[in-house]
Every structure is written in C-alpha cells, then in structure tokens.
C-alpha cells in the first residue's frame, strides 16, 4: 500500500509538471504570435533579423522542454519496472501465507485479502495504461509541435528572402526613376522597366500576403491540436482521481479485514487458554 501511494504521488507530481510545461508552451506560442505580428508591421531589416533571432531562441526553449518531458517518461518507465518487481514479491508472500494457514476461516480471510489486493493491482495496471496513453499523446504532441516549428521556420526564412528581394527591387526602382529624370531620350524604355519592376513588386507583395495566410492557418491548426490534447489530458486526470478514490476505499476494506483477522486470532488464543485451564482443572479433580 505504501509503495502504491508513493507511485500515485509521483504520478500526480509528474502530471502537475507536464501541465505546467503545457502552460509554458502555450505562453511561448503567444510570444511567437506576438513576434510574428511585430514582424508583419515592422519593415526594418535590422528589426526583422532581431525578431527572427528571438524566435530561434524560443524554438530552443521548446526543444529543451521536450527533452525534459522525455526524461520524465523514462523515469515513469523505471517506476513501472520497480512496481512489477514488488508485485512478484507480493505473489510469493501470498503463497507463503496460504501454505502456512491452517484454519478455514483464517484461510478465507487471507483469500479475501488477496482478492482485494488483486483488485488494487488491477487499478495499478489501469493507471499504467492511462500513463502509457498519456505518453503516446505527449509524443504525438511533441512531434506535431516540432513539425509546426520547422514549418514556421521555413516560412520565416522564405519571408526574409522575399523581403530582401522586395528591398532590392525598390532600390532598382529608385535608380530607374533617377535615370528617367536624367535621360529624357530613354524615357519610354525606362518607363517600361519601371512597370516591370512594379509588377514584380506587386507579385512579391501578393506572395507575402499568401505566406501570412498560410501562417494563420498553421496557427489555428496548432491551437486546435493543443485544445484537443488538453481535453484528453483533463479526461485522464479525472480518471486518475476516480481510480485513486476507489483505491482508498479498497484499502479501508483491507484494513477492516486485517483487524477482523487479528480479533479472530485473539479469540482463538483465549479459547485455547480456557480449554487448557479446564483440562488442568479436570486432571486435578481426577487426582
């Protein structure tokens, strides 16, 4: 029972840590969205590079949190193996108790105790299965998050390239306009070039708009996945709380049976002492 309580407390602590990690990921996502909005509004090349650097730092922080979650999963696996070893020792102890039990009532109480312990072990198994499902969800969430981060990084790199091309075309446009003012005889040719540059600039601006729309779709998809994961995580927390309540009730029942067994043993000892005294008294009367 103490081992099971210890495992339950550790699982609860782990759940709290992972819930905190999820909250931190949500905050990081908000920071990432803020940086994206700032990048959209700010057209300065220096500010754009600074924002991209901040986003890379946030990505590294997210990867560090993922590694931490993986280490927590490894620790839970070690605890599961330790629980299996304790279960083996418990079965050996039960066998010894059944072999040494002589009285029918005592043996029945021991068997009832074993049945209750088996039910507790079943609840432990349910908890382990819930933890396994939760680990799979966390792994899927981590993979989805890594994929989204890589996609966002690619979009940012592409947007930076488009920004540089746009600025280069803007400089070419200014140079072309200067040539138009300086050389009147080449006015028509230069005007044609200006129109081509403006069309290219409009195309790049349209591509920028398309990239921003794609980023918006990705953010909405990520938010939906995160909401679904949080809902499933809440359901597992509720299941774990229900199993913990059932386990406490079963432990109370086991304690009552153990107390009943102790009282029955005391009563048998008292009866045995009385029988001994009566036998001794009869022997003295016969003498």
**Total strand segments:** 0
* Element order: H for helix, E for strand: HHHH
User: Any idea what the radius of gyration is?
Assistant: 37 Å
Helix proportion range: over 70%
How many separate helices? Answer: 4
> How does the major sheet shape up?
none
Average of the residue pLDDT scores: 72
User: What count of structural domains?
Assistant: 1
Class per helix and strand makeup: mainly alpha
Beta-strand content: under 5%
Gross geometry: rod-shaped
For the termini, the CA-CA separation is: 56 Å
The unreliable regions are: 41-45
Tell me about this structure.
There is one protein chain. It is rod-shaped and about 155 Å long. The model is unreliable at 41-45 (pLDDT under 50). The protein starts with a helix and ends with a helix. With 287 residues, it is mainly alpha-helical. The protein contains 4 helices and no strands. The chain has helices spanning 2-41, 45-100, 104-182, 187-286. It has one domain. Keywords: Coiled coil. Residues 8-215, 240-267 form a coiled coil.
Question: Can you summarize this structure?
Answer:
With 287 residues, this protein is mostly helical. It contains four helices and no strands.
Which tags fit this structure?
287 residues, mainly alpha, coiled coil
Task: Please give the structural blueprint.
Elements: H1 2-41, H2 45-100, H3 104-182, H4 187-286
